[in-house]
Design brief:
- The chain is an alpha/beta fold and 360 residues long.
- The protein has 2 domains: 4-167 and 345-358, Rossmann fold (3-Layer(aba) Sandwich), CATH 3.40.50.2000; 170-343, Rossmann fold.
- Helix content is 40%, strand content 16%.
- β9 (219-223), α8 and β10 (245-249) form a beta-alpha-beta unit.
- α7 runs parallel beside α8.
Length: 360
């Protein structure tokens, strides 16, 4: 029988970590069986998993402000699940990592980044918790910045750390399987693909778009869904830009979104190695982005002038400079695409995770 992997996510809504897991699971196929726990009960990303996979989605009666009770419930699951690996994702799943002490299952922790509460600084309580709970675990980090934090701030031993950059199927975005999406209105299209959460700071993107729109006719596309969507839609009406801002909701074929854009924009307060930036690069797009995580190291040298401070005016300036020069957009996009092909293909990622899932 194939080995069973127990995955614990704070949520299994569609997001970077969940999309990466779906790519891994689909690639490995029958090599592994997967037990997936979504702590908030949401399993929307299940739709991205191949129907032939051996999957189960057990529910746990988790309760707010009952940390020790939740640890007991996780511990019961760990004992009942015949898994060879426990894989936890991000701070939200740390209670399950605690429940595994002193090592019921071989533990792998994947840390992709932080929520808004840690956008500007590491919280001491969380630093100490990670230092203690993850000391005997294998910790996977997709960005150099995170690797440095894990080593220098969390004080985890280098022998326990694994730097594994995210990878994608670049060909999917170079040659879309479906025609490009189009949206009503006139002028070039600025767009983003994101889970609509606070740390993405899409209010900043709306503000930047409003400034650019004063200079030229253009449109903004926001692809994705999440808890702040309603507030963002209301904000566009209050700003008088609703007619030129298009919310697509969740879309599985995001390559169709990228194919319809002229400029990709990222307005986040915190990121590490955003998959959306890699996808935009693979699609041959220039990227106007806040300087977060590893983004400045990910994009081409030609794109670096458009990696800016987390400021509405700075982001608007980067977008405007790209919109006014079609030749520049083409040059920057081509350079980004070459980087995506050479550095961010998925095969290296598949090989690294296969080793983690199988090695003793």
């Amino acid at each position: 029988m194939s080995p069973t992997l127990l995955h614990v996510f704070p949520t299994f809504r569609v997001g970077g970590a969940q999309i990466r897991f779906a790519a891994l699971a689909n690639h490995f196929g029958a090599e592994f069986r997967h037990v997936i726990v979504a702590m908030d009960g949401h399993i929307d990303c299940r739709d991205r998993l191949d129907s032939s996979l051996a999957l189960s989605f057990p529910k746990i009666d988790l309760r707010k402000r009952d940390t020790f009770g939740d640890i007991r419930r996780f511990r019961a699951l760990l004992r009942a699940t015949e898994a060879s690996r426990l894989i936890t994702y991000n701070w939200g799943a740390i209670e399950c990592a605690m429940a595994n002490w002193p090592g019921l299952l071989h533990h792998i922790h994947v840390e992709d980044g932080f929520g808004p509460e840690e956008a500007e600084r590491q919280l001491p309580r969380r630093v100490w918790t990670r230092r203690l709970v993850l000391a005997r675990s294998t910790v996977v980090l997709p960005s150099r910045l995170l690797y440095g934090l894990a080593s220098e701030v969390w004080k985890l031993k280098p022998s326990t750390l694994r730097y594994i950059p995210n990878g994608i199927d670049c060909g999917r975005f170079e040659r879309p399987a479906f025609p490009a999406l189009s949206w009503p209105g006139e002028g070039p299209v600025i767009g983003t693909v994101a889970a609509l959460r606070r740390e993405k700071n899409l209010e900043r993107l709306l503000g930047a778009f409003a400034l650019v729109r004063r200079q030229r006719t253009c449109r903004l596309v926001i692809a994705g869904d999440g808890p702040v969507r309603s507030a963002l839609e209301q904000r566009t009406h209050a700003m008088g830009i609703a007619a030129d801002v298009h919310f697509t909701g969740y879309l599985a074929e995001t390559e169709r979104v990228y194919a319809g854009l002229d400029v990709f924009a990222l307005s986040s307060d915190t990121e590490q190695m955003p998959t959306s930036v890699i996808e935009a690069m693979a699609a041959g797009l220039p990227v106007a982005t806040t300087k977060v995580g590893d983004v400045a190291d990910m994009v081409s040298a030609e794109n670096l002038p458009f990696v800016v401070a987390p400021d509405i005016d700075a982001l608007a300036g980067a977008i405007e400079r790209l919109l006014k020069d079609a030749a520049l957009r083409k040059t920057v996009g081509a350079a980004n695409q070459a980087i995506a092909r050479s550095k961010f293909g998925e095969e290296a990622m598949f090989a690294a995770y296969r080793g983690l899932f199988t090695d003793a």
